[in-house]
Amino acid sequence: MKIVGINIKKLREESEITLRELSKRLRVSASFLSQIETGKASPSLSTLKDIADALQTTVGGLMGENQTKQDSPVVKVKERKALKHLGSGVSMYLLSTPDSNKQMETLLFSLDRDANSGKMLYKHFGQEFVLALSGVLELTLNDTKHVLKKGDSIYFNSNVPHSFKNLYKGKTEAVWVVTPPSF
After folding, report:
1. Per CATH, which fold does 2-62 belong to?
2. Which of 157, 85, 102 minimizes the C-alpha distance to 124?
3. What's the CA gap between 170 and 114, in Å, rounded?
4. CA distance linking residue 116 with residue 64, whole number of Å
5. Distance between CA 62 and CA 157 in Å, rounded?
6. From residue 175, how far is each of 30, 106, 112, 123, 132 by CA, in Å?
7. Residue 105 CB neighbours (<10 A)
8. Sequence-distant (≥ 6) Cβ neighbours of residue 163 within 8 angstroms
9. What are the residue boundaries of the structural domains of the chain, listed by start?
10. pLDDT, tens digit, for every residue of 130-168?
11. Given this model, what pLDDT does residue 137 score?
């Protein structure tokens, strides 16, 4: 997570935005934002997305995806970039290489037992496709709960308030495709 904080601070300073200005835009405290920048705190998935939007980049950009040269379009398991602990027990891994012309972002979500996206529903611009690989994933769209088991999938507009949680007694994994690329 330290690289994320370093990149947030770098982009914020390059944009000539003070810590206090950015914290007001994001509706978080300046001290919390400072802790994120120094790697002492981890933002939630929705806060990380809000930071990326405010700094006119993507979550992948904050993770340094654009800072490494890729000779191959293949992402080996051991080479996946991980953004760990997005909320309680949620890990996210980038499944694609950096590309400035990318039209979508492909992600692997790994949810520990009882992990979820948080108490509040969130929404943003775009569309999402989710394919459950293992376990049981509950995806809430507005007030409707959808349960996905291994092999099940769902496609929805991201502007619909949504949240997710692991209903399985163990780990649940899902491929998440988001457009436009912002995660």
Report:
1. 434 Repressor (Amino-terminal Domain) (1.10.260)
2. 157
3. 8
4. 25
5. 24
6. 34, 7, 15, 19, 7
7. 22
8. 116, 117, 118, 120, 121, 122, 139, 140
9. 2-62, 70-179
10. 999 999 999 999 999 999 999 999 999 999 999 999 999
11. 98
